[in-house]
């Protein structure tokens, strides 16, 4: 079910027409649907039934505090990768006892901040990090609840830039090293072993890579149990894919059932945490952009739009595909095949290649599936101001982040003295 649908030839977000949003807030602009976020989160929650679970939304996918707050109101936990993300969760009313802290390079001050706020688990990615966590916890006089993020070395069959669980990745502790790391951790005075975590990649469109990883993780849980090291939570990461261009990823139910079946088959009845980001936010937002000009060369047509790679980096960064559709289907323009390109002075500043569109200058387009890894990667290259973000809730709209202004763009910069 999509919350972005045409009505009489006009694209709407819930009950609000996107052209009215473009008129009120300008373009480029990100538009989110509250019901979309909530429906996705609830689908996962319900799929678990009465199996003990925590959905730790991966903040990095879309970290606007309004988004975090809506999920916190549903009872969500959060997966964070920096102090800044934890501060956002706290500001949004999130519960730190449902927070897991991932990331390969946590600094001492970030760890101290997380430990003082009593997060559920520090997901440790190396033995060197374990030593750092012990040291910081000792200084604070607290016990750190930890998991190791293990690297099960399975191929998630997704884009190499978003694969994280293979042995050549920088992420996690290899399975060979993990057992000894747990034994070390169990002996440390300020460490309490809480769980085991893995996250194998993103935009995964079948259940088999998840089941393969689960199998490997469960074997480790049993090996640890035999050693007297008790795991209290299985954190199976994020990675569930979405439909960008006709992919058919598993449903929330299929995904969750395959995990529950996997653990039952092993006779391991542990609470499960998952860290979905893209699944919850990806199709919960779109980016609106306006056609400034069209340009026709001998071999190419260009639709030159007012949003660029600084606003939506994914196509330039990982050749990601986003559908691009007109906001108003009624047009007098002829259909042609366009490269939809932005204003940034880089050849990579492209939102989509070879799109059949009937457009002319002044038309509005929606770049679909722009709720995850989109605004969060927006930047100021070419001194462009980051776009506004708007949340639609039924028939009302809320500006949840203003378009940046020039003063914000140069904040913190100073001239040398005369
Ligand atoms: C990015 C990330 C996630 C979320 O991944 P999605 O594909 O958006 O679900 C979860 N856990 C960790 C550790 C991550 O780095």
Blueprint of the fold:
Layout: E1 4-7, E2 10-13, E3 16-17, H1 18-25, E4 29-33, H2 34-47, E5 53-58, H3 65-74, E6 77-80, H4 83-91, E7 99-101, H5 108-116, E8 121-124, H6 127-140, E9 144-151, E10 173-174, H7 175-187, E11 191-197, H8 208-226, E12 233-235, H9 252-265, E13 272-274, H10 278-281, E14 285-296, E15 301-305, H11 314-318, E16 324-326, E17 335-341, E18 350-358, E19 364-367, E20 388-393, E21 396-401, H12 406-410
Parallel strand pairs: 4-20, 5-6, 5-13, 6-7, 7-8, 8-9, 9-10, 9-11, 11-12, 12-13, 15-17
Antiparallel strand pairs: 1-2, 2-3, 4-14, 14-15, 14-19, 16-19, 17-18, 20-21
Helix pairs in contact: 2-3, 2-9, 5-6, 7-8, 8-9
Bound molecules: pyridoxal-5'-phosphate.
Pyridoxal-5'-phosphate binds at residues 58, 60-61, 79, 102, 199, 202, 237-240, 275-279.
Walk me through this protein's architecture.
The chain is built from 12 helices and 21 strands. It is of the alpha/beta class and 418 residues long. The chain has helices spanning 18-25, 34-47, 65-74, 83-91, 108-116, 127-140, 175-187, 208-226, 252-265, 278-281, 314-318, 406-410, and strands at residues 4-7, 10-13, 16-17, 29-33, 53-58, 77-80, 99-101, 121-124, 144-151, 173-174, 191-197, 233-235, 272-274, 285-296, 301-305, 324-326, 335-341, 350-358, 364-367, 388-393, 396-401. It has 2 domains: 4-32 and 282-410, Lyase, Ornithine Decarboxylase, Chain A, domain 1, CATH 2.40.37.10; 103-274, TIM Barrel (Alpha-Beta Barrel). Helix 5 packs across helix 6. The radius of gyration is 23 Å and the shape is globular. The chain binds pyridoxal-5'-phosphate. Residues 58, 60-61, 79, 102, 199, 202, 237-240, 275-279 line the site of pyridoxal-5'-phosphate.
